[in-house]
Design a protein that fits this description.
Elements: E1 29-33, E2 48-49, E3 57-62, E4 70-76, E5 84-88, E6 101-112, E7 119-125, E8 128-136, E9 139-143, E10 152-156, E11 162-169, E12 174-179, E13 187-191, E14 203-209, E15 216-228
Antiparallel strand pairs: 1-15, 2-5, 3-4, 4-15, 5-14, 6-11, 6-15, 7-8, 7-14, 8-9, 9-10, 11-12, 12-13
């Protein structure tokens, strides 16, 4: 599958002093989480927390750079045993599960994790991973079975907040990625890990995997899911 890259992987520039501005969306948002009403230091309301979370930390934290002032922290300390520290949104029932395009938008800040993989953002349906992103080594990586897309660097994150949007086309089995600029695609034709028959029961999953040799940590915020026309 051809991947159209207009510009090589670049650091996306924005002014941190004014923080991240909430993006305008011309659609009905079906699911949203900004953690504004959640208690600091506790699990986010409504999220599904894995049993492996007891070996790490999942909590709502204060963050003045986000519109709501709060974020979700997923933290996996060093451990000789592999555990999956995971927080998932509830499965979403769509008015039209056969809709062609699903949009997922969120803010992401990578903090720790220098291996090639270990921090994951999954878009799932039918309990299977359909789209996979990895915030690792200060990069946003994309993973798919297609040749050349095995944990491939697609955008520079550094340790700053970035707004990410994925518009996933079920019919084409490919996605368009937006980074900070929600009006201009950053990358197009990014392949799915697995095809999607229906968006029914779609969920967003955040996982950091424990390993003996390093600490892993990512922050997430201002999450939205909707159907794109």
């Amino acid at each position: 599958m051809r991947l159209r890259i207009g510009v090589a992987v670049l650091a996306v520039v924005f002014v941190l002093s004014i923080g991240l501005i909430a993006s305008a969306i011309d659609a009905v948002v079906l699911q949203t989480y900004d953690f504004a009403q959640d208690k600091i230091g506790e699990y986010p309301e409504g999220f599904i927390i894995s049993s492996g979370a007891q070996h790490g930390v999942i909590e709502v934290v204060e963050d003045s750079e986000l519109p709501s002032g709060r974020a979700l922290r997923v933290f996996a300390p060093p451990n000789e045993t592999k555990y999956y520290v995971t927080a998932s949104t509830p499965k979403l029932k769509l008015p039209d599960p056969k809709a062609t395009k699903l949009a997922v938008e969120l803010c992401v800040k990578w903090s720790q994790g220098d291996a090639s993989s270990g921090n994951y953002i999954y878009i799932r349906t039918d309990d299977a991973y359909r789209l996979i992103m990895l915030p690792m080594r200060g990069m946003l990586k994309w993973h798919a079975k297609d040749a050349g897309m095995n944990v491939k660097d697609v955008a520079v994150l550094g340790r700053d907040w970035h707004r990410i949007r994925v518009v996933a086309d079920r019919v084409k089995s490919s996605a368009t990625l937006y980074v900070d600029d929600m009006k201009r695609p950053y990358l197009e034709n990014l392949p799915f890990q697995r095809p999607v028959e229906s968006w029914d029961g779609v969920e967003l999953r955040f996982t950091s995997e424990t390993i003996a040799t390093e600490t892993r940590e990512v922050f997430y915020g201002d999450i939205k899911i909707w159907v794109e026309d």
